Amino acid sequence: MPRTSRALPLALLSALLPAACASTSPSVADTSAAALRVEVPTITHPAGETPQWWYRSGAASAAANGAMAGRAKNVILFLGDGMSLTTVAAARILEGQRKGGPGEENLLSWERFPRTAFSKTYNVDAQTPDSAGTMTAITTGVKTHMGAIGVSAGRRDDCADSLGKQRLTWLQLADAAGMATGIVSTARLTHATPAATWAHSPDRNWESDADMPAEAHAQGCLDIARQMVATPYGPGPKVMLGGGRGQFLPAGVRDPEYPDRTGLRLDGRDLVAEWKGAHPGGVYVWNREQLQAAAEAPAVLGLFEHDHLQFEHEKDRAAEPTLAELTAEAIRRLSRDPNGFVLMVEGARIDHANHNGNAFRALDETVAMSEAVRVAAEMTSAEDTLILVTADHSHVLNFTGYPTRGNPILDKVRGSAREDGSPGEYARDNSGLPYTTLSYANGPGHTGASNRQPAGPKTYPHSPSSAEPALGRPDLTRVDTTRPDYMQEALVPLKSETHGGEDVGIWARGPGSEAVRGTLEQNTIFHVIVQATPKLRERLCAAGTCDANGVPVELPQPERFQRKD
């Protein structure tokens, strides 16, 4: 039976919701410790969860934590896709060991931020979520269904229904408010996370027109790539850096880097040309040298791969920028705007490596994102720039055994299968075999024979469509489990490892970061951003979405923020 939320007594509710008071007029805003209270209706879960309820509930949570006291000029959100707490802990140790230390004492760049919280990641229809629904919660303030891009909950295959459910993102809000905006990702720019900053689609897979069903075309839905170059709210993102050239170029047009590949679009549209038309003086680049040469361009579209960017481990750094370099380029360009900027940076391939059952690449990509966050922190000031670091969801990577202090994180456990074991020797399971510190609960690392590789340890890449039961565990004594292509053992055989459903972390620095504490619903992150950034909340208030205290509580309608020209 569904459970009904129990209403709190008014006195207790007031006590739980202290925050800085703000008004619709910045000149008279009161940021003292006066109590702010946002009324949230009591509902039955999940039946009563409307988009309006999710939005107001998130607003109440952010205001209760004091987000309205924020005075951020700029906002940077770093999204480590699939960056579970286990991934963070293991990457922290790997980075520390690369520096020559034991590793456990190390901190990734964002772990030095003063504010932390947990984020609850479920979708409205899924206990364990996907990247589209989770990122939409972060970008719109409304939780939604698995696979949704910028729309509130509905049917994933229903274009017509989704047209009335488009939700305003905080990047679109910033564009309408006159701030500079930017998107950086190591994935295709049409992939779930970057797409959810700007596009609206009931199905994350509708990346190009070739991916959409005829019925969706007929009902008026646009593919994600086409929406990414549209500018209905303002000038649009001044910086878009990522992968996915194929989704932006028409079929028959050869890729500039891979002559055997062509564009994927069937409608004949050249979206790179359309982007240039919408950004006079803007420059399109597809390699590192071109990006550096376009340093003074007022806007830049960088598509550095036909598909996703290469893993850091495989990247030709002379040709393809690192995530830290892309982040620095974006901040350098956006910070020229006197009105401030908002920027989303995604370390996308953390997720892909975990899905591949390859811990080396997952941790290596996390370390690369730590470098990007370090660069961003050094290039900005905590006095005027809110930086948030979080993940959209978890993964089923396990950190197990009793390895001795400083044991290489990718190696086999040295110590014992018991807490009181002696260090130095490999720990052994009940059958006498060694095992690794890191493993996956499921995925392609299952050691039974598959249709792709024989029984025993698996080597990256491995994407099987069938598997046989494992006949015991393989003997890893002479197997180098620290090599980049070793795939950690997985208990359940799957073609691709799955997400995990547990909470992920939020780390924050700068104005408004004090609101990042406790355990938050994921959609509250949106409200922390807009409440802590005066230009964003003022634009929402100008559209009539704020209460008497200036808290944006009413679900904004995108058409009210579009340009009138």
What share of the residues lie within helices?
A: 25-40%
**CATH fold field value:** Alkaline Phosphatase, subunit A
Residue share in β-strands: 5-15%
Structural class: alpha/beta
Largest sheet: 10 strands, mixed
Spatial strand sequence of the major β-sheet: 7-8-6-5-9-3-10-18-4-19
- Assign the CATH class: Alpha Beta
GO molecular function: alkaline phosphatase activity; metal ion binding
Keywords: Magnesium, Metal-binding, Phosphoprotein, Signal, Zinc
Organism: Pseudoxanthomonas suwonensis (strain 11-1)
Family: Belongs to the alkaline phosphatase family.
Task: Name a few traits of the molecule.
single chain; 565 residues; alpha/beta; Alkaline Phosphatase, subunit A; ten-stranded mixed β-sheet; 17 helices; 15% strand
Can you describe this structure in just a few lines?
With 565 residues, the protein is α/β, with parallel strands linked by helices. The chain has helices spanning 10-16, 51-64, 85-98, 131-140, 159-162, 170-176, 192-195, 214-219, 224-228, 245-248, 271-278, 288-293, 323-334, 349-355, 359-379, 524-532, 534-542, and strands at residues 3-4, 44-45, 74-80, 115-120, 180-188, 239-243, 283-285, 300-303, 341-347, 385-391, 394-395, 397-399, 438-443, 458-459, 486-487, 490-493, 499-500, 504-509, 519-521. It has one domain (61-396, 499-561): Alkaline Phosphatase, subunit A, CATH 3.40.720.
Helix and strand arrangement:
Blueprint: E1 3-4, H1 10-16, E2 44-45, H2 51-64, E3 74-80, H3 85-98, E4 115-120, H4 131-140, H5 159-162, H6 170-176, E5 180-188, H7 192-195, H8 214-219, H9 224-228, E6 239-243, H10 245-248, H11 271-278, E7 283-285, H12 288-293, E8 300-303, H13 323-334, E9 341-347, H14 349-355, H15 359-379, E10 385-391, E11 394-395, E12 397-399, E13 438-443, E14 458-459, E15 486-487, E16 490-493, E17 499-500, E18 504-509, E19 519-521, H16 524-532, H17 534-542
Parallel strand pairs: 3-9, 3-10, 4-19, 5-6, 5-9, 6-8, 7-8, 13-16
Antiparallel strand pairs: 1-2, 4-18, 10-18, 11-17, 12-13, 14-15
Helix pairs in contact: 2-16, 3-15, 6-17, 13-15, 14-15, 16-17
